[in-house]
Fold:
Amino acid sequence: MKLLYSPASPYARKVRVLIIEKNLQDQVELVPVVPADKPDSLISANPLGRIPTLVRDDGSSLFDSPVICEFLDTLGDGTDGRSGTGDGQWAVKHLHAYGDGISDTVFTVSMERRRDASEQSPAYINSQVARVARGLSDLNHRVGDFALTPNLGEIAVACSLGYADLRLAKDLDWRAANPALAAWYGEICKRPSMAQTEPPK
Ligand SMILES: N[C@@H](CCC(=O)N[C@@H](CS)C(=O)NCC(=O)O)C(=O)O
Structure:
């Protein structure tokens, strides 16, 4: 299989973290692409031109990242609880969506800042930064339940924090405001899966 990805994408990072956590490196080749260039390899697999996109050995493709993660979690030794089971799966899916929602919000700020300066809206950027701050403050109260052998929800949150560091470092001192979340993140970043997928500065 091939995973089309870019090194800074928090969504692709989740998939890359999961691949390492589940020891699937031999089964998935990582192929870096630049979505803005609309390479044929990406557009033919995903007409929406977004990464991550997984191209399976039979040529079929899977996106977006939650679908890829749930598929990969069925491989290897089978599901090892990364997706949750029974009623517990809903808490995992919820946290996964929560982490992705934070990444989505950071991503909108990043996109807004790529527009011409005269077209950017500081009020819009401030409202998005405030949305991230509210989410992280709430997660700071929930983090006591988080594990260090991460499920898909915890992986999504960890990758969203890495993305906030990458794109909102000057806007948000989230560690000072959220010490419990910062402590958990500091520990989870020691895992090889997180250390090996750190986005480029
Ligand atoms: N919900 C999607 C989001 C994917 C996404 O927005 N990826 C960005 C990169 S971080 C992308 O491909 N952007 C290129 C574009 O939209 O043209 C997922 O979870 O896979």
